[in-house]
Amino acid sequence: MEKRVTFKGMWLPLLLIAPQIVITAVFFFYPAGQAIWQSLFIPDPFGLSMKWVGLGNFEFLLKDSFYRASFVTTAIFSTLVTVVSMGVALYLAVLADRLIKGSGTYRTLLIWPYAVAPAVAGVLWLFMFNTRVGVVTWYLGLLGYDWNHVLNDSEAMGLVVVASAWGRISYNFLFFLAGLQAIPKSVIEAAAIDGARFWTRFRTIVFPLLSPTTFFLLVVNIIYAFFETFGVIHTITSGGPQQATTILVYKVYSDGFVGQDLGSSAAQSVILLLIVSILTVVQFKYIERRVHY
Amino acid sequence: MATVTLENLRKSYGNTEVIHGVDIDIADGEFIVIVGPSGCGKSTLLRMVAGLETVTSGDILIGGRNVNSVEPMDRDIAMVFQNYALYPHMSVFDNMAYGLKIAKVPKDEIAKRVANAAEILQLVPYLTRKPRELSGGQRQRVAMGRAIVRKPAVFLFDEPLSNLDAKLRVQMRLEIKALQRDLGVTSLYVTHDQVEAMTLADRMIVMNGGVADQIGKPLEVYADPATEFVAGFIGSPSTNFLDAGRLGRRVEGGAKVGIRPEHIRTVAQSETDYAGKVVYSEPLGAETLIHLKLLDGEDVTVRQEGALPIPSEGESCGLAWEAKDEMVFAKDGIRLRQ
Amino acid sequence: MAQQNGMVEKRSSGLWLTHLGMIVGVAFIFFPIWLAFVASTVDQQAIVRPPMPLLPGDKFFENYARALTSGVNAPVGIMLVNSMVMALGIALGKIAISLLSAFAIVYFRFPGRHLFFWLIFLTLMLPVEVRIVPTYEVIANFGMLNSYSGLILPLIASATATFLFRQFFMTVPDELAEAARVDGAKPMRFFFDILLPMSRTNIAALFVILFIYGWNQYLWPLLITTDPSMNTIVMGIKQMFPSGDDTADWPVIMATSILAMIPPVLVVIGMQRLFVRGLVESEK
User: Fold this and answer.
1) What is the DSSP letter of A59?
2) Domains, chain A
3) Is C235 in CB contact (< 8 Å) with chain A?
4) For position C111, what pLDDT does the model report?
5) Would the CB atoms of A3 and C107 count as touching at under 8 Å?
6) Interface confidence: ipTM more than 0.95
7) Cα separations (Å) of C68 from C76, C151, C218?
8) Is the pLDDT of residue B219 over 60?
9) Is the pLDDT assigned to residue B331 strictly greater than 60?
């Protein structure tokens, strides 16, 4: 698509575009290039020189059982986050769509978590499930359940999943609600006249018509779970216990900054870069042109 | 006010030429309508005069000055766009005043000119409104006002009435004509509607495939079309075209004979060689359109007085016309004159 | 009549069930925030001896005053200022450079236009998390650790807003630019007089989204602000937890958590309509 009318001149547009190009070059392309470059080297133990290892870092990573475990962890984590947050959001959106009055009030209340930073969400959930002072922990104790996400792998995973999904419900809710409201009422009325009850209507009419929204949210939520949940994990579990909640992004951070293993961290960045690129292509290919924040 | 001259004006996009050389001398104060079907190049021609499209070759002169490479704002023109192109966030007043503000016209002068234009166009009560709060006709008037306040030498209209409903279109057509008469500004007006062209134009340019097929006064063009295309495009219902060979007309190189519907009479079959079966009739009150199918399958429309008897459907009729009303066209569509 | 009453009754009971379902959902969503608020209004004793109360206590002013003025490592008041500078810097900076470059890309034909567009476009969806180590080095080499520019600039390097404005500019009718040209407006005049005012709603919606994006950043400030006085509030909360076995100062931490969510919540709620429209439309 092109504009029919354009203004003349060459220096003015170059000047206009310059700030973005400069910032993008310095803070995006250069670091991304560096990541790719560094992934081909390992530094000597004193950090004085770099040794060319070609794809050695990648080879090492793919053989590394911790890294492969992190892949599995990420897959489980992102699947659970996506399913939980989308499920709850769809449930709430269907209810809100049925309400003609008052849905605005509920919407206002439900938007809140969107504004809460993942790291803050992590702190809130950590507080509820804290092993010593957590309210939920205490009530679970009354029921005879000994909650301890500091020691128990699956409890830790469960907690970071719920905290991550929680913050995402608002976003999914807004999209599902918009999607539901875009379905023509006449279609649903026609189905009702055909004798379809609520659940039948939902399964056979509403959900299929909602599928573009669902697919879009699926991709966006996976990307969210991959990259934007760092704050949740860092605040709640710091990747533990025994790396049970170390997702790929967390590992880039812990290997690069805590472990100071720059070559490996860079190689991990490159792998992540590939994953995002693939997800982006998928997103653009199947959902046309939608921008992700 | 100024004359406008187009000299062998051509436009190409890449290797595709879309305007194949147009020549016309437009007198000061003249109202010229460029008419043709969509894609004939009429809008491109107008936009070239406006300076919104570059000239590939040829010349445009406004008031004797060559403006080929002059910016739109410096051509002393004003333009009314098809969708009005009003600035949506500005009030009616600001929309009209914007060009003058840029030209650094003094504030009181701006106020005076806008007030004057608003008076003429009956827009005074709406000056503080935004375009979205106006009806289609009012928006149209604002677009006109924006053109008027600039006091340009030439008005350019790009299908300005096509977004209005039929009734409003007729009304605005009259207003535009009256306004142009009063102001006496040279005008170029693009439309695909031949009724608009006939009623508004002092002279019209009938465009077809990037060529000006005919330039002339509306009634002259109607009565004496230069090409088969013009004969078919101007006039409603359209001219009937009959195969010259079947009619037995042996004009050298002639391919088709055109006869306007009002020039054909229905007569008793015995009086004529030509006969057809009535397919259906449209009685419109003042006149009746009779659609017939000739024996060889050609369609013919006859237009007759509303008071005359209407043949019933399926009835066979004879057809007659005067030889002087026949227009003979060559294979390439050019009119052949005896 | 009886029949009709039956229908209405059945309907209204369904309606109440729907409301009940919504209320349960909202309560679930809201409970963590409520609990944090309660915790920020009681003293440490009420929390460390579980179960903590579920209704607010009387230490509201005490806890918030303590958080704002002294905090744990640095006063939360300073962190709030840092967060505000960072969020506003990212939102306004990104909007400004994106408007300009989108204008250039859409309304001009200049050499390299397509190349530049694709270069910018490539940055879509590649979050800063993916390139943290080298980006950190760039910032360190520029001496921008512990600085606002270090916090802001790397997060501006993304094409989302440019792409959005480009989409919007493409929908602006061509005739408007032509009318402006006939009116004698030069490119920048057209930009400021016409394009910018027309983009108001898009700018506002984008502002909400970017403000929250900026405010909620965690990893990046965590890396480049080693000086507690440069901490942002979102990352500062985690720094308040003691290392080792000491008990955390829960009332202050929870007061800080509430303070950390107030500005973005206000922005979202206050500009809800614009934001929802902007969000849903921008993703379409």
Assistant:
1) H
2) 57-287 (1.10.3720.10)
3) yes
4) 84
5) yes
6) no
7) 4, 22, 20
8) yes
9) yes
Q: What is the DSSP string of C158-210?
A: -SHHHHHHHHHHHHS-HHHHHHHHHTT--HHHHIIIIIHHHTHHHHHHHHHHH
Amino acid identity at B15: N
> Residues of CATH 2.40.50.140 domain(s) within chain B?
240-336
Arithmetic mean of pLDDT over chain C: 83
Which pLDDT does position C9 carry in this prediction?
38
How many B-C residue pairs are in contact by the CB < 8 A criterion?
Answer: 61
Going from the N-terminus, what domains does chain C have, and what CATH number goes with each?
2-65 (no CATH), 76-282 (1.10.3720.10)
**Residue C7: predicted pLDDT:** 36
Angle between helices C160-171 and C200-215 (to 10 degrees): 170
Residue A241 CA to residue C198 CA, distance in Å, equals 53
Residue/partner pairs of A20-23 with CB below 8 Å, 24 or more apart: A20/C97, A20/C98, A20/C100, A20/C101, A20/C120, A20/C162, A21/C101, A21/C116, A21/C119, A21/C120, A23/C97, A23/C153, A23/C156, A23/C157
DSSP per-residue letters across A13-57: HHHHHHHHHHHHIIIIIHHHHHHHHHTTEEE-TTSS-EEE-TTHH
CATH 3.40.50.300 residue ranges of chain B are 4-232
Provide, as residue numbers in chain C, all residues whose Cβ is less than 8 Å from the Cβ of A117. Answer: 215-218, 234, 260-261, 264
Task: Give contacts of A289 with chain C, Cβ < 8 Å.
Answer: 167
Nearest CA in chain A to C281: A290
Q: Pick the residue with more confidence: A103 or B188?
A: B188
Contact: B73, C183; criterion CB under 8 Å = yes
Angle at CA C247, nearest 5°, toward C245 and C251?
A: 155
Are residues A115 and C268, on separate chains, in Cβ contact within 8 Å?
yes
CB atoms C179 and B146 under 8 Å = yes
Per-residue confidence band for C281, with pLDDT thresholds at 50, 70 and 90? low
CA distance C133 to A273: 13
- C48–A132 CB contact, under 8 Å: yes
CB contact under 8 A, A139 and C51: yes
* Cα distances (angstroms) measured from residue B227 to each of B212, B332, B336, C94: 11, 9, 9, 60
Running DSSP on this structure, what letter comes out for residue B224?
S
Sign of the dihedral through C-alpha C215, C216, C222, C227: positive
Confidence of residue C8 (pLDDT cuts 50, 70, 90): very low
Residue B111 CB contacts under 8 Å (≥ 6 apart), including other chains: none
Q: Record the tokens describing residue C151, joined without a space.
A: 């916090």
The dotted CATH code for B4-232 is 3.40.50.300
Query: What Rg do the C-alpha atoms of chain B give, in angstroms?
Result: 24
- For C216-236, what is the mean pLDDT? 89
Q: Which of C52, C113, C261 sits opposite A116 (nearest CB)?
A: C261
Question: Do C182 and B79 count as a contact with CB atoms less than 8 A apart?
Answer: yes
Measured CA to CA, the distance from residue B209 to residue B214 in angstroms comes to 12
Cα(C167)–Cα(C122) distance, integer angstroms: 16
Token duo for residue C187: 């490119």
CB distance B149 to B100 below 8 Å: yes
Tell me which residue of A293, A167, A288 sits closest to C206, measured CA to CA.
Answer: A293
Beta bridge partners of B292: B278, B300
Q: What is the mean pLDDT of chain A?
A: 83
**Closest-CA residue to C54 (of C69, C68, C37):** C37
B74: which chain C residues are within 8 Å (Cβ-Cβ)? 184
Least confident range of A17-21, B125-129, B295-299? B295-299
CATH superfamily of the domain spanning B240-336: Nucleic acid-binding proteins (2.40.50.140)
Q: By the CB < 8 Å criterion, does C48 face chain A?
A: yes
Higher pLDDT, A204 or C220: C220
Check the CA dihedral A110-A114-A120-A125 and report its sign. positive
pLDDT, one tens digit per residue, over A257-281 is 877 777 788 888 888 888 877 877 7
